[in-house]
Structure formats: structure tokens, C-alpha cells
Here is the input.
Amino acid sequence: MSYETYFQNNREKHLAELKEWLAIPSISALSEHKPDMVKAAQWLVDKIKQAGLEHVELHETKGHPIITADYLHAPGKPTVLVYGHYDVQPVDPLNLWVTPPFEPDIRDGKLYARGSTDDKGQLFLHIKALEAIIKEEGTLPVNIKLCVEGEEEISSANLPGFLEANKEKLAADAILISDTSLLEKGKPAISTGLRGLCALELHVDTANTDLHSGTYGGGVPNALHAIVSLLASLHDDKGRVTVEGFYDGVPDISPLMKEEFQKLNLNEEQLRESLGLEQLYGEEGFTFVERTGARPTLELNGVYGGFQGEGSKTVIPKEAHAKITCRLVGNQDPAAVLENIKRHLHSHIQPGAKLTIKDGEKARAFNIDPSHRMLQLAADAYEDVYGVRALFTKDGGSIPIVETFSRVLGAPAVLMGFGLPDENLHAPNEHFNLENFDKGLLTIVSYLKRI
Amino acid sequence: MSYETYFQNNREKHLAELKEWLAIPSISALSEHKPDMVKAAQWLVDKIKQAGLEHVELHETKGHPIITADYLHAPGKPTVLVYGHYDVQPVDPLNLWVTPPFEPDIRDGKLYARGSTDDKGQLFLHIKALEAIIKEEGTLPVNIKLCVEGEEEISSANLPGFLEANKEKLAADAILISDTSLLEKGKPAISTGLRGLCALELHVDTANTDLHSGTYGGGVPNALHAIVSLLASLHDDKGRVTVEGFYDGVPDISPLMKEEFQKLNLNEEQLRESLGLEQLYGEEGFTFVERTGARPTLELNGVYGGFQGEGSKTVIPKEAHAKITCRLVGNQDPAAVLENIKRHLHSHIQPGAKLTIKDGEKARAFNIDPSHRMLQLAADAYEDVYGVRALFTKDGGSIPIVETFSRVLGAPAVLMGFGLPDENLHAPNEHFNLENFDKGLLTIVSYLKRI
Here is the structure.
């Protein structure tokens, strides 16, 4: 039976299984979901065993469990380590979801649920592709190792140590990861670069209590005034980050890279319209693809303080808060970037306001040469299924662990993504296009057979 | 029996009654408390009747009910109209209250509850003072009218119309209001000026959904970036409001006024310390008393957008929100100020961000000449009880209706407050010092007898 037929025959069953997994709210960032994390991990362990993989182990960590497994019956053949994550992002604002984030729903050929594309849905493809080959051919054409974590959305705190401690056990010739996107429908892409990341939270405190704006207004510091002027100081009016030293280690965009970017032929006007934007916006002098692919950013992810209820309240808030993440490129050092931002913040805080800063995750950017054989074979596999060869791109997102994996195991990372850029990952109404669910299964099978 | 003895004998009973009233969460700003508003109004109607006042009426409005009553048995004597409000401010952040806001609690001679000082506690003094005189002397020494509303904290939307429609019925020689503060413990003050007010809410929208900061970061507008730079543009680094025309109608501080302010002899260092501040802060070139008494302000009362939960979330928020109120002085026209702010905001919004602005309440500043007989008698009454004559001050707060009352009824407003500036009005742990509860009752009796 052809794999097309096999996957067609099993489609309903596979989707029902995936929906079951997506219904478990495995939000790694929120401690109240700890039991759901265990449940989601255990669900996956069972499916990996069912698929026919061996040595399936669930490793406890200080955070959420890591799962490993293998199938090593192709002596002399390369070993591929498949990585993915079973944790998902928080879901607020909940009111913007058309159907609840943990009640998976298929509409117009798309599967809606938190985690559907990032990354349960994509990881699920690998389990089912491996199961299919084992069932159809009795064995796998390559050696396979599996390493799945539950902390990708919260900086993979425990995976680097686990990798170091299990270097031999996890040794591989390539690391295969499906946690990225096609360029657009029908246009596969292999990312040869991921931006790095660093995160911080800041807290501004003024008085020991909220104050009445009549009695005190104009005479005392207002935590909100202090935080907005502080945060506004982080960018100039050309969209450039003003933090001293922020751009250290950022490479110029080479003529070759510029050419690669132009090949992508992104329609900015179409993108603008699809996002409902009046206009795109960013650092002056760069295109959208350059801004997201080759330039670092400093983004405010959350700002809050004072009264948020209905109506008005004449209060001078005593505290205000902000959450910031940066995307890093080239040789930017996340630790140095954090230090520079902290120095900037401390030197720009308004008199009378106290500033506290808490560091978050840190990850370096990742880059790989597209001429590597394992990447070229991946492009071929896409061509088998999609009819067009994958383009090699730079991805704006971060999978902090990719750089670590690649460095610790000394192997190339193959970012074979099956999402689409507009699938609302990290946002309300996250979904996964089932066209790529179907094609993803076939592409993985083709890749493993080609190696 | 002396009034001291009378109030001493009834103290427990009076406090128990007041606690009963404070336990009703009459938050006018939140629609879910509509039934509590009715309950709090009805409770007051009953107490006014018990006190012996006549023609007690509850008037329905488009918002919350207005209560009127009178006692007109002193022919040839002046008529005093007592005003107060039974609505209270919202209570968040709830976690900062030591005891719940609607479970009144007496600690260290202070009554803790939302509304204890603003304004239920102070209004209650008038009801009990009137009741005492009627009980002790069989009648009142002046004619009394009562007008109590439930919308003071939300701009008194319906009272001005009510006043216009009932001009004759409410005609009086003075309007007596206890909704302000002593200068400090043992130092009574009569406010001869209140700042005006205008309010607005603003909403910034960018994309049609929250976006992933990896895929889009650096290439699309971020609603939070847009709002912080917009809000930061409202002040310069000398604490001055940068909105063109904002200071139109603001009088210079005259040498006489400067002298009055100096007489207050405010200890700025002590104030700073009591508020837990590193330093006071405000418009350069003015003292704290000048800033809050004679200068206008533009305050951010709330700002929010994006992720507020535990941990981090790499999201580009699609919307951000802010609430602003201004305190106005002299001849500043609230409508013109609002227009000027709106013009400023629309001309400073970042490209790619959409701005929506919603107007809130508007009120002019109020000023009265301290040499007026009704004010001088009030200062005498304070002296009878506190042993020191009240100082005439300018108050930073706004009671929007005072200017309207005074204008529509053509009578002086006597702001005979019994609160203290540090009683956390509009903030967690609002309280009322019982020393001023006791002295307030006696001061009101003395005032009415002196007229």
C-alpha cells in the first residue's frame, strides 16, 4: 500500500488522536497546569510506544519531564535525532478565541487549538510517520532517536543540562525539528537561521500606596509616567533600538543575503492587508524580510499598571510593570544585551521612581550553511511531496534549544517546518492547516528514506 | 445634656450604623453594583427619616438615585443645603487591603472601609448632628435642605440637570459640604478652591490579531510601543505638560497666594517620608503646595496591554489602552483642554497605529472668597471644637458638582471637611480617623447654631 493510501486510511484516527492530545492544556508557563504537563507527557509516551519505538523513557527534571526513545536497527546508516516540544503558550486574551483553545475544532480544513501548529501538531507528524514506516516495512531506513521536552515556551531551562549529561546517548548525524513554517501555502522553506532571544521583566515602584490624584496629583511621581517615558526611551522615531551597544555583533546584510531575501519575493502589501494593518512598521532602511530575518528587535510584550476596570478612577498608581523580549541575530551575546538594556533602564528612570529588573531566558542566534547534505536532502523531500524545492530562509523566531543541540551534539539541525506564518501561533485562534498535516507526513517519510 | 455627652452616649450605636452602611458596596462606576447603589440609597433614606427630617424623597435618575429632604421650621433664618454622596470608588487592587473594603474594621482609632472618609463617613456626621439637635432641642436653629447623590465618583452626570429643574426647591443661602480634609491632625482647613477635572480613555489598535514576536517582530507596529511613546510625549522632562494650549486660563500664582501657601508651612520632607517616596516630583519651579493647589495636571490613571500573567510571552500585542484624568485650575475650560489633548494625541500617534479616544467627565475649577460670612462662621465653629481656627486653603481635588451647585443656586459653598490627607481615599485601606468623627459632629452642631 502506498504511504498516501496508508495516511488517507488512517486520517480520521490520527486526527482524533491529535485532538485528544491538544485537549490537554499543557501550558508550561503557568504553575497551575503542572498536572496537565505530566498528563500530556504521559499521553505522548504511550503514543511513542504504540508507534513501535524502543527504550521509551520519561525523565523527571526540576521543571517538566523530558521524553527520550530510540529505534536503532539500521547499522551503517546515519542517525537522526527528532526533537519537538509538548508544551504550549498561555492562551489569553481568551475572549478572542472563536472556539476554546483546548477544545480542538476543525473548520475549513484547519485544526484550531492551542498547540495545533506550535508544536504538538508538528511533532505528532513524526510519531505517525515513524509508525507508518515500521508498520509498512517492518523497520526504519535510518537509526532514529527522539528527544521531546516540555519547556520550550519557557526557555528550555533543563534541556541543555540534560543534553550535556546524555551526549553519548543522544549522539546523532542530524537533528530533525518541525517547529517552523512554510514560506506560504505550497511554498516549503528550510530555515538556516533562527534569531536568539533574551527576556526581562521590569517593575517600577513609587509611593507606598496608590494615591488620590486630587490631593497629590502634580506633586508626586506617578509609576505610569515613569514607566512610559522609560519604555519610550528604548526606541528612536526611526524604529531603531537606542540602547548603547545593542547592535554589537549584528552582521551587516551581505549582498548575497540581500539577494536571497529578494528571492523570497514577499508581497508586503498583501501581508499588510492580511494582518489588518494600516502599514508595516520597523527599523528605517530595511525591508520586512530583512527586519524579521536579519535584524534584532526589542519588543514590549506586556505593560500594565493602575486602573483597568470600567469607567475612570482618579488614582496615581504606586507601581507599574513591563515584560520585554529581544530577538537577536549574528553574534549578539544575550547576556551582554541584557546588561546593556539594564544599564540603559537604570540611567533613564525618572527621579523618584524605583526600578527593579528580573532577567528571563537567554539564547544565542543559530545559523547553518544551506549546502550541507542533510539540508539538501530535506529540500529534495519537500520537492517529492510539494512539487517545489524548499527555499532556504532565515527565520525571525527563536527555538533557543536549536543552537544548543547543534553545539552540544556537534550535528546540523534540519528545520523542516510544516506550519504557515499566519497560523496565529502564540495568539488567539492558533490553527494548523490540514493540507500540511497530510503533506508533512509524506515529506518526513520521503526524507528518512532518502537519507 | 451637652452635645459632648449626647454623642459620647450614642457613639457605639452611631458607629455600628455607619459600619452597616459602609458594608454596602456602592461602587457607582461598576454596573454590577447597581443593586447595591439602590440598597445604599434606601438605607440612607431610612436614616434621614429617623433623624427627623421631612419630605424625604428618593428621585430616580438615568443613573443612580438622588435623595432630597428638608426641615424648614426657622422662619427668617438662613437656609443651609447639605450635600454629600453615597457612592464610593472601585477597590482594586484588592490584594493590598489589610481587611476587606466592605467589611468595616476599627483599628487604632481608625475606621477602615471603602467610603469611610469619602464620603459616607463624612455625610453620616451631618445626619447624626441634625438628629442630635432635633432630639435635644425639638427643632433646628436654621432651615435645612438635604441633597445627596450617588454619582460623585463618576462625574455627577445627572445632578446638574436635577439642580436646574429644582432650583426653587433647593434654593439656599449656603451649600454645606463635608468631602474634604483637615490640613493635618488637629489643623482644620476650609477649602476655598477645588481643581476642575477632565477625563479621557484612549485605545490603540494595530493588527487584527496578536502576533508572534519571532515571525513578525521588528516588521509590524506593536500597540504597546505606540502607546508608551504617545503617552511619554505628554510631559517634558521638567514635569510640564507638553500639550499645546494646555495652560490657557491658568492664572499666575500671585504674591498674596504664594504667601497663603507659605503659611501652610508644609513639611515636604515629612510628607515624602510618610508616602515612602525617594523624592517628591512635579513641575519644575513650584513647591508641592503650589503644584497641587494652583497648577493643573495630566495624570495617567491606568495603562495596559499585552501579557500580564506569570512568566514571559513572546507576543506583539494588537491593542493597548490608557486612562487619563487632568486636574484643572483658574479659568481652564475642560472642553478646550480635552480638545487640545486629543489634537496632541492624534498628531503624535506612531505610523501604523490606530487611535480611538473616548471623552469622560468635565468640570471647571471652583473658587470662593474666604472673607464671606458663611466661611468665617465655619472657621469659628472649627475653633470652638478644635481649639484652632481653620485655615483657608486651595484643595487639589475636584468635587465637580461644587462649582455647578454654587453657580446654579447662586450660593457660596462651604467646604467643611473632616478627613485627613493620608486616609487613602481612592486607594486600598481607606479609613476615617474617629477623632474627627467625634469632633466633626460637634463642629457641625456649633456651625448650625452660630449661623
